[in-house]
Write a structure and sequence with these properties.
65 residues; mainly beta; OB fold (Dihydrolipoamide Acetyltransferase, E2P); 0% helix; 55% strand
Length: 65
């Protein structure tokens, strides 16, 4: 599974993960596994699988690393 770091969280239930290739990938709170959106903090390490959303790549199955 790819790893990344939480780069930005919004108050609308989504955020962005900075990947190891220095690109950002979108994630929605519905893609979280085993963690609540409200407990996430910027800078935390996460793992995810890359999926495809209506506007391009997105992270799915996001878990704390």
């Amino acid at each position: 599974m790819p790893e990344g770091t939480i780069k930005k969280l919004t108050d609308k239930g989504f955020g962005f993960i900075k990947t190891t290739t220095d690109k950002d990938i979108f994630f929605h709170s519905k893609a979280l596994k085993g963690v609540q959106f409200d407990s996430l903090q910027e800078g935390q390490k996460v793992t995810y699988t890359e999926g495809r959303g209506p506007k391009g790549p997105c992270a799915e199955n996001v878990e704390l690393a």
